[in-house]
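Question (not urgent): is this output format expected?
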Amino acid sequence: MNLISPPQQKREPILNLPPIIVVMLAVVLGVHALREVLLESTDLWVILRFAFIPIRYSGLAEAAAVFPPDDPARWWSIVTYSLLHGDWTHVLVNALWLAAFGSPVAWRFGIWRFVLFWIITAACGAAAHQIAHAGEVVPMVGASASISGFTAAALRFAFQSGVFAGVRPASQAAFSAPAEPLLRCLSDPRILAFVLVWFAMNFLFGVGGIVLPGNQPSIAWEAHIGGFLAGLILFAVIDPVRSR
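Got this back:
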């Protein structure tokens, strides 16, 4: 009779996501739940204070009564809009996209670089939306600009290191491979094809009238492009790993 117990195998969690991804998922889902359940009567106030509204930055006289130039919301709403969503389908689609493409970047960047990158790409997405929609009163919400930035950042290293799934491997070194320079990165046929398909899809969904689940008929595709280009170009500025 064998009295020796078999070696215990280490049990891995079902969702082995970076902690900051778990936190951000909890934030965006929690914010939407709070708006749905607790803040229904004050949701208009939330939109006016935290959504990105182009007319707020237009300088138009008719906007001054609602959005005075000294309104502090003009400074934070360029980022806080990314924490708001239109409906549950919208937030769940963005949550899945964030888990898939934000995770490899989060393992590589760490918490504070990840948060900084979120802020930068959200602001760049807002700037692109403002250029295209200056003077409009329709608010923009959603994390898509930042998620587009993380998608672009993942392209800079994930194909060459094989960590696109974002699940942490046995060795953290898989997320620490030096990234290729941008032009050399774009010369990779796989990356170039991904970028071309990504832009084509945004053009079709944004201009061609095709509607994604959870989105309004008009998608803020300019914000997606602003966030994506920011992520692609500014990745090297935030990246803690020394480039090739």
